[in-house]
Amino acid sequence: MPPLCPILSHLRLILATVSYTRGGVEKNMVKRKVSGYLSKSMFIRGHQCLKSLWLHKYRPELKEEADEALEARFRTGHEVGALAQQLFPGGVEVPYDGLTHAEQLAMTQKLLAEGKETIYEATFEHDGVFVKVDILHRGAAGWEILEVKGTTEVKEYHYFDTAIQLYVLAGSGLKIAKVALFHIDKRYKRRGAIDVQKLFAIEDITAQVREMQPNIAPALAEMRTMLAGEMPAIDIGPHCSDPYDCDFHGHCWGHIPEDSVFDLRERGVDKFALYAKRIVRQADIPLDTLNRKQRQQVESTIKQCDTLGREDVRTFLSSLWYPLCFLDFETVNPAIPLFDDSLPYQKIPFQYSLDVQMQEGGELQHHEFLALPGVDPRRALTDGLIAQIPAGACIIAWNQGFETGVLGSMAGLFPDLAPRIEKMIEGFRDPMTLFRDRTVYLWQQKGSYSIKAVLPALVPELSYDGLDVADGDMAMGAYYDMCATQDPQEVARIRKALLEYCGLDTMAMVRIVEKLRKMAV
């Protein structure tokens, strides 16, 4: 069980770092007339960072647009929440869209008065805080707050989410007997229609959120005091991404220059400790405080110099043979299993790009596979690979553990293909290791060894810029969009974008290996 979270002490710790300044001289806060209204999401935001709450309230235009990863999280939340309602059938939903807050509150009270035992998105307000409960259910012992999450376990921040709900509902006069959290059971394997009883695990967290109740009102009071003044001068810190990436990151981090301490890769020095000492630029870092890889990154950045371990490159190249194949997968990992014999968050390959060179200097043969929308792609994809990859071939993959892991799951799913797949796995080689180990390092990589960083540094004429799909998260989102649309033209557009992106991944490996051969001479 995760440790309890002391809300008030945490907020006081944040407030202790706040100074209200104008022109570098500390001043009293300028009071502003402000509504005391808060929502559950605002409370959670304020717990993470009071400055983020202030900006959300008064400067929302400074927010960054949601990226594909965040959109995927929202999508998962909606899908998981809708499925969880099936655990308590017959309930009535209080919709958010189309109704004012007052109308949602009134509808909830009407449903309670009518004796409804299950209400989805039940809406309450108390002490100026507005909340919606995923599922409000009257159990044998009384009313239950049932929160639904798409995670595979209870997270520490989930307690805050439910604690504020209990505070509001209890303050509204509803007697709550139980607070529970439903999350995805990662052991569930789909066979046929989704079995919602097995998909979800439930954890009773009543004791934890009750223990947090005395701290809720003081925490709210501190938030409102902060909102009545000027923007708190809270500096950047680990809280900017814990537990969520803040959508005001671009605003708050605007003073951080390029090639800063925060661009250091690998573990080593405490970056925020350096920042606290006003060491921001990599050029200002004492080199003797850095580990080998971070020191290499800093020195390479400052001097704009590269590293080439020619003998190690030759050793890697000597381990390759023909036929030589270049392989890249795209996968989805849905919280709710899409197909039979799959688990929550299991990687499901829906696409590959394959370039085959039968002999040195030979012409590349390009193959590709992209699943039809809504069809389990795994057998067709695996059959395609077996047919198109010559027996005994050497297979190049960037970060080969990803591709071999996917193939390993296919071997488990299709025992008749397992011997052939296992032989394929034996033939994998990974050029990424040269860049990960810094045997080859170009200063433009900025410490990263992802193919998106290596390609423009080593092969500047190739680029992912301008592609409709430009990374793995976008590819996953595009696949979901393709499965959701009924428009043939939109399907065709998405397919073209996906094929172009995945094809560039394998061509990137082809060109990188070509460059390595030239560098090894």
If you had to describe this structure to a student in words, what would you say it looks like?
The structure is a single chain. With 521 residues, the chain is an alpha/beta fold. It folds into three domains: 1-21 and 33-231, Lambda Exonuclease, Chain A, CATH 3.90.320; 261-305, no CATH class; 306-521, Ribonuclease H-like superfamily/Ribonuclease H (Nucleotidyltransferase, domain 5). It has helices at 7-16, 40-48, 50-58, 68-84, 101-113, 156-171, 196-199, 206-212, 216-227, 249-252, 271-276, 292-303, 310-318, 378-388, 400-413, 418-426, 432-436, 451-458, 472-484, 488-519; strands at 21-22, 25-26, 38-39, 92-93, 118-126, 129-139, 142-148, 176-184, 200-204, 307-308, 324-332, 348-357, 365-370, 394-396, 428-429, 440-441. The strands form four sheets. Strands 3, 4, 5, 6, 7, 8 and 9 form a seven-stranded mixed sheet that branches. Strand 12 (348-357) and strand 13 form a beta hairpin. Helix 13 (310-318) packs across helix 20. The radius of gyration is 27 Å and the shape is globular.
Regions with little confidence, pLDDT below 50 for 5+ residues:
1-34
Global mean pLDDT: 92
Gyration radius, in Å = 27 Å
Report how far apart the termini are: 57 Å
**Strand segment count:** 16
Structural class: alpha/beta
Shape: globular
* Biggest sheet record: 7 strands, mixed
Helix percent reads 40-55%
Q: What's the structural domain tally?
A: 3
- Strand coverage percent: 15-25%
CATH class of the largest domain: Alpha Beta
Return the CATH architecture of the largest domain.
Alpha-Beta Complex
Number of discrete helical segments = 20
- And the CATH topology of the largest domain? Lambda Exonuclease, Chain A
